[in-house]
Amino acid sequence: MAKPPALDVDVLITLCESARMLNSHAALSRRQAAMVAVVLNRWDWLWNMDLTIVLAIQIIGADGMAIVCEAERRIYRNNA
């Protein structure tokens, strides 16, 4: 089985924009949905996934959190 493509900052930003526009994370993997919820500060999405912030961070992992932090910075602080 082929490994899915790596999630980079630009892909995560696109996922965030789509999820925000659709007001849904349903089409995303659990890790992607956790990352999007953290970037968009959607605690309600984490709650619906039965995740605490700590569990979301564990699912995202250290490499993913670096991507989350960069995506959040670009989206909310408008720094490309």
Structure explained in plain terms:
It is a single chain. The protein is an all-alpha fold. The protein has one domain. 69% of the residues lie in helices and 0% in strands. The protein is built from four helices and no strands. α1 crosses α4. The longest helix has 25 residues. The chain is globular and about 30 Å long. The mean pLDDT is 91.
List the helices and strands and how they pair.
Elements: H1 9-22, H2 30-39, H3 43-48, H4 53-77
Helix pairs in contact: 1-2, 1-4, 2-4
Distinct helical segment count: 4
Please tell me what the overall shape is.
globular
Summarize the biggest pleated sheet.
none
Strand content: under 5%
Quaternary structure: single chain
Cα-atom radius of gyration: 12 Å
What are the main properties of this structure?
80 residues
Short description, anyone?
With 80 residues, this protein is mainly α. The chain has helices at 9-22, 30-39, 43-48, 53-77.
